[in-house]
Specification:
single chain, alpha+beta, 2 domains, 14 helices, globular
């Protein structure tokens, strides 16, 4: 448990900020995925405003989260963190990536249902007698609404990193595993949206945006300049027995939102359906051990509590 006195929920006494933080950290320590969150949070501290992160976590209402499952609690934290995402990052710290080719292609993977809702020009497809549903993996989709927009920021990977090269073109299973999209389970129809955008604004991802993805790993910000990218976890490699030392998938970034019509080039491709469910908790422990290395989870929790307790 965290070194500070554990705060008990449900009491009438008003808890101090430090006690509320200790309560949240203790809740996270109680589950493997909570511990994964803590390790990533410690790695992310140099990229965030610790005081703002402490304020966000200490705002957790113990009466509300009491009795929540592990998954529900992490989803609850997601809402708190992402509501405050811009305030949590240091000014100018979510820097652009000058090492990224200004005309490079980036790819975002989404479900077919999300793609149809946000991007597909259904009336155009009907009037043009085009099929509303792709037929085979690798099919291109041309009926895209040019005025549609991505979210304010979206996850993407450089297309050049795909291994094998066709993984993000006609293989939903491999694309999902390579990019670490653990929340896409069995029989998920996936779409690859590949963009070529002039001088995209790209940011280094942190646990703030990633939670509750249980396979996100925060890359140490003290690494050399060229390693400021995020790195996905290859779900297929992680599930191997024994787990290999290198479970890396591809580089990953956050891209600022764009209007689809502003892309220099756009390619939307149907990937087919996933063939397995990688969201199982059976690899949680192996992933946690990979993140921890030689560190102890109690030491990780104590370090976080010490830093976040400062006003």
């Amino acid at each position: 448990m965290a070194s500070a006195t554990k705060a008990k929920a449900g009491g009438k006494k008003t808890l101090t900020r430090g006690q509320r933080l200790a309560y949240v950290i203790d809740r996270l320590l109680a589950s493997t995925r909570g511990q994964i969150f803590l390790v990533n949070a410690l790695r992310a501290l140099p990229l965030l405003k610790p005081s703002a992160l402490g304020d966000a976590l200490s705002s957790v209402d113990s009466a509300v989260v009491k009795g929540m499952t592990e998954g529900s609690f992490l989803e609850y934290l997601r809402g708190i963190l992402q509501d405050r995402v811009y305030g949590l990052h240091l000014a100018n710290e979510r820097r652009v990536f000058p090492e990224f080719s200004p005309d490079g292609w980036i790819v975002n993977i989404c479900t077919y249902s999300a793609f149809r809702y946000h991007y597909m020009n259904v009336p155009a497809s009907i009037s043009g007698h085009a099929s509303l549903r792709p037929i085979a993996p690798g099919d291109l989709i041309s009926s895209v609404e040019s005025n549609s927009r991505t979210r304010d920021y979206f996850w993407a990977a450089p297309c050049m990193d795909s291994n094998p090269p066709h993984a993000i073109k006609n293989n939903a299973e491999r694309a999902r595993n390579l990019i670490g999209l653990v929340h896409y389970g069995l029989d998920q129809e996936l779409i690859a949206l590949a963009f070529q955008v002039n001088a995209p604004i790209l940011y280094r991802p942190t646990i703030v945006e990633a939670n509750p993805n249980s396979r996100f790993r925060q890359i140490d910000p003290e690494h050399p300049f060229e390693d400021r990218w995020g790195r996905t976890v290859d779900l297929e490699m992680l599930a191997s027995i024994p787990t290999p030392k290198d479970i890396g998938g591809v580089r990953e970034i956050l891209s600022g939102g764009i209007r689809i019509g502003d892309a220099l080039q756009l390619e939307c491709r149907y990937l087919g359906q996933t063939e397995s469910d990688q969201s199982t908790t059976t690899t949680d422990k192996a992933f946690l051990e990979h993140l921890l290395g030689v560190e102890n989870i109690i030491d990780v929790a104590d370090k976080i509590l010490k830093v976040l307790s400062k006003p």
